[in-house]
Structure prediction request, 277 residues.
Amino acid sequence: MTTNSTAGTARIQARRAARGSVTEYGARAGFTARGVIYLLVGVLALQIAFGDGKRQADRGGALAALADKPFGSVVLWALGVGLVGMALWRLSEVVFGAVGPDGGKATKRLLSAVRCVFYAFVAYSVLSFAVGSGSGGSSDEQSKDVTARVLEWPGGQWLVGIAGVGVAVAGVWIAVQAVRRSFHDKMKLAQMGPRVRKFVDVTGVAGGVARGVVFTAAGAFAVRAAVDYEPKKAKGLDDTLRSFADTPLGPWLLVLVAVGLVLFGVFSFAMARWRRV
Prediction:
């Protein structure tokens, strides 16, 4: 009986170890894929700032840029698979809890569920582009179309406004968390040397703030579209980035945000290496 119990415990531990390995590889592949996309979006935004914006500075533009390169289709498939891995990792956090003492809390599981749905959608769009059944789509047109549909619903104006406020608040939260270096709690800092840790801090803070600024601006545009009842005032990622060039700072604000997105891409690579999953 003791032998059976020991064997059962061993099997459970083996399953946990196997599941842990699968989710870890998925998470690290997902962070790498996210890094590539943000890096490319940042580069495209820089091109816009310097007057050479031939592509949309969004996920569709990044995918199109990759497709034009040698072995581009292979890279697209790799990105899609990596993002599927990210979605599965987030799903495992919903089921088993996230890393950390409070990883099993309902709020943490809910946040992981939202992230799982988001990355599943992104993975679907990337894989659709890879097989040629998706155009990559303009984020600007998608935002306007979705906003127009929702505004036609009963209470649609309120729904768009609330969603916009939610996105804007999320942007502020992302920026604040970056400034506070909250990512330290999730990384293997002991495995980093002083220079590497400083580099991770710079990319994490600058990248997180830039990402937060973009979210906040996009949310503000959605609120404005709801208040004015004009779907055309909603902006996707590309239009949001381009709007920074229309500020009193001119293209230099866009340059700063674009560099920040590039740094967030680099930070995502660091997360792929040192994130505790």
